[in-house]
What we know:
This protein is of the alpha/beta class. It has two domains: 4-235, 3-Layer(aba) Sandwich (Rossmann fold), CATH 3.40.50; 239-311, Cytochrome-c3 hydrogenase, C-terminal domain (Cytochrome-c3 Hydrogenase, Chain A, domain 2), CATH 4.10.480. It has 13 helices and nine strands. The chain is globular, with a radius of gyration of 20 Å.
Amino acid sequence: xxxxxxxxxxxxxxxxxxxxxxxxxxxxxxxxxxxxxxxxxxxxxxxxxxxxxxxxxxxxxxxxxxxxxxxxxxxxxxxxxxxxxxxxxxxxxxxxxxxxxxxxxxxxxxxxxxxxxxxxxxxxxxxxxxxxxxxxxxxxxxxxxxxxxxxxxxxxxxxxxxxxxxxxxxxxxxxxxxxxxxxxxxxxxxxxxxxxxxxxxxxxxxxxxxxxxxxxxxxxxxxxxxxxxxxxxxxxxxxxxxxxxxxxxxxxxxxxxxxxxxxxxxxxxxxxxxxxxxxxxxxxxxxxxxxxxxxxxxxxxxxxxxxxxxxxxxxxxx
Length: 318
């Protein structure tokens, strides 16, 4: 699309492969995600077409930008290929070259042009207290635009909404005990304002880049994926951490670790929240498949509603 240059300093990366060749490679790579039945010539064709008609607008509320950083760490496919060949990303406050009114004007122009067709990505919680002034996304026509304003305006216009990260999904750390900002997740916000646009929660602190890219690819080609009771794609959040833990046999044998440096032993007594957590971290791992939380410490249940309060203290038994 003609506006994609705004995201990378006005210049597209030149590669030695065609978009079609890349998409075939991408679909083969992501086949391990769990919906390999999607990846066929029809899928490649559909994704190519969707890139021209289905832009993605990414807005940020209360958060640390950790999910954006996680997405930028996407290795296979690379983030440059994700942005230019997988996702038609038309607005993202962290990585776009444009800023100020120019950026906001483009945000609302694209939303109006593709009304009912674009996907809105929300990262970070939505602070509702103080008329939303705890989080201001910018200024347009001499008026401050709060995160509340953005979500109220763009939410109903979107064809679908992805709540990226636990903050956007359920409130997360900004909504933890003691907060004064009225932080809330997208689904709860939509209920308050009667917004009917379907929402897909992709929690995590941060969310894994595969979960983000895979969910967007699914939306572009197959529509809303099957969701669990917490609004999460079953393809990523349908498996229990404890049941798939490398230490589960130690648990069954009653062998419990006493400290993190113990090579053997289940870490439940050290605070592991794996029995109450559902995600495929154990097989996807992090940092390009290098490791995951249980390799070094414990699962703290960051993909679950109620995090962090429901998981705290992290290093004490549930």
